[in-house]
Amino acid sequence: MRKLLRFLLILFLCLSAAASAQQGYKPSESNLKAREHFKDMKFGMFIHWGIYSTLGDGEWVMDIKKIPYNDYKRLADFFNPQAFNAKEWVDLAKRAGMKYITVTSRHHDGFSMFDTKQSDYNIVKATPYKKDPMKELAEECQKQGIELRFYYSLLDWGRADYAFKSPIVNGAPEKGDWNSYINFMKAQLTELITNYPGVKGIWFDGHWDRKNANWHYDEIYGLIHKLGPDIMIGNNHHLAPIPGEDFQAFEKDLPGNNKTGFSGDAKIGELPLETCETMNGSWGFNINDRNYKSVKELVHYLVNAAGLDANFLLNVGPMPNGKIQPEFVDTLGKIGAWIDKNGETIYGTRGTVVKAQTWGTLTAKAKTVYAHLLNPVKEGNQILIPGFKVKPKSVTAFNGGAKLKYKKDKTGLIVHLDQLPADEIDRIIKITY
Ligand code: H79
């Protein structure tokens, strides 16, 4: 009985999201091309930066510390990132091997980090900085051939028309002015797409705050695709993709996993996949979070994502002065050094040729398969690649090119590892056929 109720609830939630979707959406040729390019890129930089950064306690600080909105707004007065330099951020992303940047244009606190006519609560009007860092970032990205995408929060903790915590009646908040809020978002999204050169994607978040609201995705997605048919829309709603979306986002979970507890309803669809993760435990700058993930952990995340055909969007939370903390810079540099050597086995590959094995995972492109040994090998000094049907032309160590002994039988391809060099992070076998 409980199972049935749960099923009906999930069905209802999916249907209510789908009801406002961009029904009948057919992606343009340029959009389909953008999706393939997106899959080729594999690795991007997520940036969480806002006036919350001044408190060094993450982007949820207003909610968690119960700071009244009107007091929180004062943070704008202290936000003056004199050391911000778009070139440094883009240089760092490039050095790390990242091919695109997704940056918070506006988070749940409702503060716009870009020049907007729709609200004075923005970086140009409300801070002593008075400049638009998103403009600089967009221009620098274009200059350096890095794609730019905007994170955009659907949830707003402060606006009266959003009316945070108001009960939802007939798809709209009882107390707020839902039409006004939807129109506000449409106007801001129009600005983000038309005022910044080369924007390639919009990353929505916050849907889960109002699962039974009518988000007017038909209008919002329709508008975005009208302004830029190749712009890729993703939405971190924790559901299967709904019509109008161009990629599927996962948060802190590889597709198919549900460690966070909110990926449970996110059935993997047909769209390009992307999963995001933090370098410590925080998205926004957190001065007390020293829980840094190692280079090895993060490279494994990248490789495992690639093995599942998913991109990896790795987050940094710049400090309020505009600098990225040295611990992140150091780790990203080391990831970049790894990619310099091994990028061939990641970029442009497609995963899911064979599902992940106890020893690691596989990526593939153009008659080449890369087996990534991420974990110790359990039995004998050999691995089995199950279901490998074709006859290999060559089986070699990716690093150094030593020939490896192999045997094909009806279970698959068995590769002997005697000649495969040891490696702390990833021992890669290159198989051509
Ligand atoms: O932008 C980042 C997060 O702020 C946003 N999505 C990523 C990309 C996000 N918002 N909410 N969630 C993710 C999930 C909700 C987590 C919560 Fe909590 C648990 C909210 C309150 C309790 C984590 C822990 C955030 C605050 C405390």
Automatic annotation (TrEMBL):
EC number per UniProt: 3.2.1.51
Domain Glycoside hydrolase family 29 N-terminal: 15-344
InterPro entries from the UniProt entry: FUC_metazoa-typ, GH, Glyco_hydro_29, Glyco_hydro_29_N
Superkingdom of origin organism: Bacteria
Signal peptide: 1-21
Transmembrane segments: none
Enzyme class: hydrolase
Keywords assigned by UniProt, alphabetized: Glycosidase, Hydrolase, Signal
Family: Belongs to the glycosyl hydrolase 29 family.
Function: Alpha-L-fucosidase is responsible for hydrolyzing the alpha-1,6-linked fucose joined to the reducing-end N-acetylglucosamine of the carbohydrate moieties of glycoproteins.
PANTHER family, per the entry: ALPHA-L-FUCOSIDASE, ALPHA-L-FUCOSIDASE-RELATED
Protein name, per record: alpha-L-fucosidase
